[in-house]
Specification:
Elements (H helix, E strand, L loop, with lengths): L3 E7 L4 E4 L5 E10 L7 E9 H10 L5 E15 L2 E15 L45
């Protein structure tokens, strides 16, 4: 089982981009406090796709506290003959942890979105059951 649950603050404004097919993706980094170590944090790279990426790009800014659920993915690549490995959390869902006025960082945040009832899907796609619908060659990571 590959499951990651994080609560932390964004270290910078998220990058919202679109792949060649038009599918949105967003990259951001979370500062997650280490338990029992005051003042220490881990900085975790995250990436989201589709509607989740669009919400992140529209509503999140540096310093905003969020909770994310996802899975860990390892990426290997080579630069100038040197092999490198990176780890990203592929975000499957995200929740706002604190309201606009509760943030400890002075910043203007967009209003928290309101959500409507979920839509009923009569013919589910592979995405609805955890299948991967994006072409890995399309994204540069």
């Amino acid at each position: 089982m590959n499951l990651v649950v994080l609560i932390g603050r964004l270290t910078r404004d998220p990058e919202l981009k679109f792949g060649q097919s038009g599918k949105a993706y967003s990259r951001f980094s979370l500062a997650v406090d280490r338990p029992f170590s005051k003042g220490e944090a881990d900085f975790i790279n995250c990436v989201a796709f589709g509607k989740t990426a669009e919400l992140i790009g529209e509503y999140l800014r540096k310093g905003r506290k969020v909770a994310v659920n996802g899975r860990l993915q390892m990426n290997r690549y080579e630069v100038n003959g040197e092999k490198r490995t990176t780890y990203d959390v592929l975000v499957e869902s995200m929740e706002f942890v604190e309201g606009r006025g509760e943030s400890s960082t002075p910043s203007d945040f967009a209003p928290t979105p309101s959500y409507s009832a979920p839509k009923v899907v009569e013919h589910p796609s592979n995405d609805d059951f955890g299948g991967s619908s994006f072409d890995e060659d399309e994204f540069p990571f």
